[in-house]
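are you around this afternoon, could really use another pair of eyes. what follows is a protein written twice so to speak, once as letters and once as structure tokens for the fold. i want to understand how the tokens follow from the sequence so walk me through it. anything you notice is useful, everything is just below.
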Amino acid sequence: MKFPTIWPQFFTATIHKWNNLLKDDEYKDIIVDCLKFLVSDSRVEVNAFVIMSNHVHIIWQPLQHYTLTQIQTSFTTLTAKRIMKKLSETRPGILEEIKVNKYDRKHQVWKRESLSIELFTENVFMQKLDYIHENPVSAGLVTNPEDYKYSSAKFYELGIDEFDFITHYSGS
């Protein structure tokens, strides 16, 4: 595998206070829709992902003139706004749990300081890819990684891309 000048990134975003805001599929779908938008808008290439109840892991690579910071900010801002809107419509009581006393916001969906690691070798890339796909197995949600709906494992294991935005790490 030959990587380009801008290396793929392993990105982790965690829900503030490890709240299980993403437990219900309708909230996971918000994450999927955001990733689809970022890909269709040619901001990022997504190689892998998993959406858990309180965090997400993504391997992605910024495209064109977008920086990693811009991509991360777009992702967290877009998803936070949609999650907040959905919570206010369906689970307004949860808003109290994510209330913060900040100068620029009343509520906080994502923990500050998301993790981003540059994947500059194939070995590191594959280790993170396996880690992402094993997350639901480690959490006891499924026996096989490809059985978890909100993951790219089925794409890598069975060649099925139900999301239509994943690019195989080899470029195909």
Observations:
- The beta strands are 9-14, 44-51, 55-62, 99-102, 105-107, 115-118.
- The radius of gyration is 16 Å.
